[in-house]
UniProtKB/TrEMBL annotation:
GO terms of molecular function: transmembrane transporter activity
Gene3D superfamilies (alphabetical): MFS general substrate transporter like domains (1.20.1250.20)
PANTHER family: MAJOR FACILITATOR SUPERFAMILY (MFS) PROFILE DOMAIN-CONTAINING PROTEIN, PTHR23528
Transmembrane segments: 23-47, 59-80, 100-123, 151-173, 179-199, 232-253, 268-290, 299-317, 323-350, 362-382, 388-406
Listed name of the protein: MFS transporter
Keywords: Membrane, Transmembrane, Transmembrane helix
InterPro entries: MFS (IPR011701), MFS_4 (IPR010645), MFS_dom (IPR020846), MFS_trans_sf (IPR036259), Tet-R_TetA/multi-R_MdtG-like (IPR001958)
Organism of provenance: Streptomyces sp. R44
Residue span, Major facilitator superfamily (MFS) profile domain: 24-413
GO cellular component, one term: plasma membrane
Primary location class: membrane
Coiled-coil region(s): none
Membrane topology, record value: Multi-pass membrane protein
Record localization: Cell membrane
Length: 413
């Protein structure tokens, strides 16, 4: 059963909303701000804050905070998507989530215990996933099928650019993390205002309220569709491997990598992120464009997932600074292409256009769900093995399994 046609209904229908002029730059800006916070906070500021509170148990505490807060991300993403589907609007949810990011970041920078850090970052995950669920649904809502690769590339470029901004801000405010939190929250809030002010939307017909039992059942209905289920599995496996390593990057540089004399781990992050981002930009643009040109999504998704696995073998084989630089380049090439093309693939296997936000929210469980497991799994592997080499190897295996998961998809080449 071909699932791609229903998923294009809103953007391609003659009576549906036409894509907004200038939408792609706005999607780039909106996703850049989101990833700047996602990388800058847990990748740098949160890790430093937790280390300052309890340096002896930083790995276990960081895993605990990251895992519990990711549960909130998993819950709020599909719920917020379903609410925006029901309201027939995306912009108000983007605006609300973006504006709420600022006071929540203020709260996060003001607390001084692991318990309060956990609560504050849970709130941060909640509001950011309200924002994410709505902005993720803009592509299937407003972009024609033929342009999905380009639109997904614009979305995908937000990751390397946002990652660089987040890492540089995290390094710049490493000794003043409260100010860093505020800056990142302000960027998201300002971008939400920009996006909703410039990206006009035509209101879709609101959906009638369903009983709670039917709403819960509806969340899982998309996973009954063969192609969507395999896309979900593939994304979950690769993201699990990616975040098992990425979430502990600062600690890997502190405790695993042989850094050159005079180079601090925080400065190393600020170097690695731009290197990774340049590679990711190149592969995101080329991957999105080539997948449109050749109409081959599965090939690019599978190959890029395998390349991400190869990247993880480099720091497993060597703890040198050169190996980490090589890892950043190869990882950027693989992950950038994967996220750009896999996002396009996913929009083509959505079961129903009218449930686009809800089903994209369900898919985002494959992004947020593994983040629940990854910190616990990573901290357990590091504790049992006494280092990070085994973590790299496990993550590589997960990436290969993610590549294999796209093979059973039938409706997309």
């Amino acid at each position: 059963m071909a699932l791609s046609s229903p998923a294009t209904g809103t953007a391609d229908s003659p009576t549906g909303p036409r894509p907004t002029r200038g939408l792609l730059p706005l999607l780039l800006a909106g996703n850049t701000a989101m990833y700047a916070l996602y990388i800058g906070v847990p990748g740098m500021l949160l890790a430093l804050q937790i280390q300052a509170i309890d340096p002896a148990d930083k790995v276990a505490n960081f895993g605990l905070v990251s895992g519990i807060s990711a549960i909130f991300a998993t819950v709020f993403n599909p719920v917020a998507g379903a609410l925006s589907d029901r309201s027939g609007r995306r912009n108000p949810w983007i605006l609300a989530g973006g504006l709420l990011a600022l006071p929540v970041m203020l709260l996060l920078g003001s607390v001084h215990t692991i318990l309060l850090v956990t609560i504050a970052w849970c709130l941060g995950q909640a509001v950011m996933n309200i924002y994410q669920a709505a902005i993720t649904s803009v592509v299937p809502d407003r972009v024609p099928m033929a342009a999905r690769g380009k639109a997904s590339a614009a979305v995908g470029l937000g990751l390397p650019i946002g990652s660089t901004i987040g890492a540089l801000l995290g390094a710049a405010f490493s000794e003043h993390y409260r100010t860093g939190y505020l800056v990142l929250g302000a960027i998201v809030a300002a971008t939400a205002v920009l996006f909703t002010g410039c990206a006009r939307e035509e209101r879709m017909p609101p959906k009638a309220a369903l009983p709670v039992k039917e709403q819960i059942a509806a969340f899982g209905s998309a996973l009954k569709e063969h192609d969507f289920r395999w896309a979900f599995i593939g994304r979950a496996l690769l993201v699990l491997g990616y975040f098992a390593v990425a979430g502990f990057q600062l600690y890997i540089l502190k405790d695993h990598t042989d850094l050159p004399a005079g180079l601090s781990p925080e400065e190393a992050v600020a170097i690695l992120m731009p290197v990774n981002s340049v590679a990711m930009v190149v592969s995101t643009v080329l991957g999105g464009w080539l997948s449109d040109r050749f109409d081959r999504r599965k090939l690019f998704v599978g190959a890029s997932a395998v390349l991400a696995a190869v990247a993880l073998l480099i720091p497993a084989a060597s703890a040198s600074w050169t190996a980490m630089l090589a890892f950043s380049v190869v990882n950027g090439l693989g992950f950038g292409c994967y996220m750009a093309v896999d996002t396009a693939l996913v929009t083509m296997v959505l079961p129903k256009a009218e449930d686009a936000a809800r089903d994209m929210g369900v898919l985002n469980v494959a992004n947020a769900g593994p983040q629940i497991v990854a910190p616990f799994v990573a901290s357990l592997i590091v504790s049992l093995s006494g280092g990070y080499t085994a973590l790299f190897l496990v993550a590589a295996v997960l990436s290969v399994l993610g590549a294999l998961a796209v093979r059973p998809i039938r409706s997309v080449r």
